């Protein structure tokens, strides 16, 4: 997907998210009896409008979001005015816009998570390394063993393995069918719960290949490749058989750098060497998981919905955890529309066109969360005023206090926009490093 297409999709996504945000305000205001004088797409000047009932539906010249003009937004004496409604009704109207964005993010994220994803699958999983003092070490599992089955259930992907381990009762032993030196053997062990990972483990690192031999003095040996390493990727492409290695190398011009990602005893190294027209790494002999290939894994719809909801619910916690980072390095933690557009381009170009759906959900979610901040004139500011008045049993804050809050909040937001926009522009030539 070209950069121009990605930018257009980003602009359309942002525009739709902003329009739906205002539509949330519009519908809620209508349902609560507030007179809506105008619902506009884009910002004035008006190109044309159609009046239906008491509301003008307009299309405007500046294609930036939308707006809702309610009667008496700050004057409770106006009949059917927004300001004349009770505090809890106003709080609901203000909250409706951000909530629509959050719901849209949930729908888009669930749809993204329901898409088929490429996964490595094969006739078992290769043990690349064994963790010391683990269940696997105690059972005598060795690097190079291939796990064929767990409790009689064939294992084809890492997901198969983890799902099987997690389904075992706590403290229960499992049987592993292993392939070692061409012979099938059986091992019995008890998985342990890893609180860091939040799942059961047996203490092995899973590889899809292993380097069985490296000739001393070869370019590969000089680059630091050693027997027992797993060649995870070459210039970003996963390696799982001879064909995948040949394909990855064929994309490189002669004298271009070959960037490797190696796994070694659970650690990652990134050596490199210069391409000399190689179709395989010079001096390296490989061993692969039999039948390894790229398969399409499509999760059930319920799981995608559950994962989407879990992500949305956890997001406020994640934001709170990142506050120290935001304070320490705002240039890396804060992005505005320009930065979001650049990040969208980098993510889609590195992860594929389907990631546009993920970025669209993040754009809508970001818009919703930003508007929840209790800073006038954001929706959260209006919610804060309405909440305070609700706690005061309808006693209104003085107009002077509200005006002062809105003046300070507006000045703060203008300064924040200037800061974030400056950081976004400064970041353009550097990128996010995706």
Percent of sequence in beta strands: 25-35%
Question: What is the rounded distance between the termini?
Answer: 16 Å
Radius of gyration, in angstroms, nearest whole number: 29 Å
- What characterizes the major β-sheet? 6 strands, antiparallel
Total domains, how many? 3
Structural class: alpha+beta
Q: How much helicity do the residues have?
A: 40-55%
Overall mean pLDDT stands at 91
Query: Judging from the principal axes of the Cα atoms, what is the shape?
Result: elongated
Task: Give the tally of β-strands.
Answer: 19
Number of helices: 12
Which regions contain 5 or more consecutive residues with pLDDT less than 50?
A: none
Which characteristics define this entry?
alpha+beta; Pdz3 Domain; 3 domains; 12 helices
Report on this model:
Helix 1 crosses helix 10 (355-372). The chain has three domains: 3-35 and 71-115 and 309-427, no CATH class; 119-207, Pdz3 Domain (Roll); 209-279, Roll (Pdz3 Domain). The protein has helices at 3-31, 87-113, 135-139, 158-167, 219-223, 242-250, 301-328, 330-333, 337-351, 355-372, 379-391, 399-427; strands spanning 36-52, 55-70, 117-121, 125-130, 146-150, 153-154, 174-180, 183-189, 192-194, 199-201, 204-207, 209-214, 230-234, 237-238, 257-264, 267-269, 272-274, 284-288, 293-297. The strands form six sheets. Strands 4, 5, 6, 7, 8 and 11 form a six-stranded antiparallel β-sheet that branches. Strands 13, 14, 15, 16 and 17 form a five-stranded antiparallel β-sheet that branches. Strands 1-2 form a two-stranded antiparallel ribbon. The chain contains twelve helices and 19 strands.
